[in-house]
Amino acid sequence: MLFFAGVILFAIAISGSKSLPRPAGILFAAALPIFAIGSVTGNVLAPLGALLEIGSAVWMAWSASAVAPAD
């Protein structure tokens, strides 16, 4: 339960951030239940949820690097 709460709070922080894309935070929050349900049931939802989490993380990292000032 604490992991779920942490991910939801993290996704809210991402969505409220000015430098990170709001849809990436929403996608990150939506991917966790998909991954968890797939892990419990043992079907194709687990890899799909994992890919969604990876995709949102890459999206956030890419957008954060694009916003960072060049030195």
How are the SSEs placed, and which strands pair?
Elements: H1 2-16, H2 22-41, H3 45-67
Helix pairs in contact: 1-2, 2-3
Give your account of this protein's structure.
The protein is an all-alpha fold and 71 residues long. The chain has a domain at 20-63. Helices cover 82% and strands 0% of the residues. It contains three helices and no strands. The chain has helices at 2-16, 22-41, 45-67. α1 (2-16) runs antiparallel to α2 and α2 (22-41) runs antiparallel to α3 (45-67). The longest helix is centred in the C-terminal third of the chain and has 23 residues, at 45-67. The N and C termini lie far apart (42 Å). The relative contact order is 0.15. The model has no long low-confidence stretch (mean pLDDT 86).
Name the descriptors:
mainly alpha, 71 residues, single chain, 0% strand
